[in-house]
Write a structure and sequence with these properties.
Blueprint (H helix, E strand, L loop, with lengths): L3 E9 L5 E10 L4 E5 L6 H9 L6 E6 L2 E2 L10 E4 L11 H11 L4 H14 L15 H13 L5 E5 L7 H18 L2 E6 L2 H7 L2 E6 L2 E6 L1 H6 L4 H6 L6 E8 L2 E4 L2 E4 L9 E7 L4 E3 L7 E3 L3 E4 L3 E6 L8 E6 L10 E5 L5 E3 L18 H4 L6
Parallel strand pairs: 3-8, 3-9, 6-7, 7-8
Antiparallel strand pairs: 1-2, 1-4, 4-5, 9-10, 11-12, 11-14, 12-13, 14-21, 15-20, 16-20, 17-18, 18-19
């Protein structure tokens, strides 16, 4: 097992393009850390730099305290699982698994034992003599994972390993990866653009955008205390509602009404962006309702529904998650109360989360990258 230390890691290409800007995070032994963000945010570049497949142009990478910036990939004791499986089609499953061990000069008996034992971990024993072309996508991905596990590396790097699978299979494989990582206790860095994977798999999450670190924290910290408007709008399905509002006399004026601010949200009067998760709304009696409006669209999700309300001067609808039993329907007025205990306020100018007047309003991404969550 290993600790990974990324200290102001940066990647600048010869044409001046910066793919990664000062990524700093300490990854503990046995921890599973997720790099998440939209396409082009630098997450895969960071992974390839850790693996030694991409040259580091600034900063320092340490494995177990040892600087490895110039160490070749084969000497870093790291195994990587790719998006496209990267299996040898002319080799059986068993030979694919054993390939790295043979290259490392392991004995035949040891190779046979480790392949057999590791294949059993993910239920591949009966497929050992098959070829990759005879397997389903999920089976091929498991072979790729077992091929990495059989090496018994100090750390795993996983680059969007589930992106080629259908939705149902992704859920199954996600659960298997989570259970496997807990069982092995191997330090793991996992890259994905899917924030659901990030929220369900990671001990901690690193949110990236345009090469810059936006926030580092546990999934619940990222969800409930987003550092800025980007994180709030990226994490969550549906994401947080971001609504232009105004604070005056200790109350928050929203396009659909006025609500009291909780005492934990001391903020100076003025314009703000109010962040409310879809689940912050509940059905209410007419006289107790904060929102009285007619949804333009109601999506049925089984036990829940998503109601979409058009707000004046807002480009995006307000999305509310309610129990299916609430009876909300498109074209019929709904009466809802707002739970302001989950409210998050953002500065409309710099887009950062507002604190109390005694603390800084917003910490720059460069400061957040040093390892502290917002």
């Amino acid at each position: 097992m290993a600790t990974l230390s990324l200290d102001a890691l940066g990647k600048r290409y010869p044409d001046g393009t910066e793919a990664l800007k000062g990524l700093s995070v300490e990854i503990a032994d046995g921890e599973l850390v997720i790099f998440v963000g939209p396409s082009g945010c630098g997450k895969s570049t960071a992974l390839r730099m850790i693996a030694g497949l991409e040259r580091i142009t600034s900063g320092e990478l340490r494995i177990d305290g040892k600087r490895v910036n110039d160490l070749p990939p084969k000497r870093r004791d790291i195994a990587m699982v790719f998006q496209d499986y990267a299996l040898y089609p002319q080799m059986t499953v068993a030979k694919n698994m054993a390939f790295s061990l043979r290259i490392a000069g392991r004995g035949r008996d040891e190779i046979t034992r480790r392949v057999r034992d590791t294949a059993g971990v993910l239920g591949l024993t009966e497929h050992l003599e098959r070829y990759p072309g005879q397997l389903s996508g999920g089976q091929r991905q498991r072979v790729a994972m077992v091929r990495a596990i059989v090496r018994e590396p100090s750390a795993f790097l996983m680059d969007e390993p589930l992106s080629n699978l259908d939705a149902q299979l992704r859920v199954q494989m996600r659960a298997q990866i989570h259970a496997l990582q807990r069982r092995l206790g191997t330090t793991t860095v996992y890259v994905t653009h899917d924030q659901t994977e990030a929220m369900t798999l990671g001990d901690r999450v690193v949110v990236l955008r345009d090469g810059e670190t936006q926030q580092i924290g546990t999934p619940l910290e990222i969800y409930h205390e987003p550092a800025n408007v980007f994180v709030a709008g990226f994490v969550g399905s549906p994401p947080m509602n971001l609504i232009r509002a105004h604070i005056a006399d200790g109350r928050l004026r929203l396009p659909f009404g006025t609500v009291s601010l909780p005492t934990t949200h001391a903020a100076a009067p003025g314009d703000v962006i109010a962040g409310l998760r879809p689940e912050a709304f509940t059905p209410a009696e007419i006289e107790q309702a904060d929102l009285r409006a007619t949804p333009a669209l109601v999506e049925t999700l089984g036990s829940d529904v998503l109601a979409h309300f058009e707000l004046a001067d807002e480009s995006r609808p307000l999305v509310v998650r309610l129990p299916a039993s609430s009876g909300v329907a498109a074209g019929r007025i709904a009466h809802l109360a707002v739970d302001t205990s989950t409210l998050v306020l953002f500065d409309p100018d710099n887009q950062g989360r507002l604190r109390s007047p005694a603390t800084p309003r917003y910490r720059r991404p460069a400061d957040l990258a040093k390892g502290a969550s917002s």
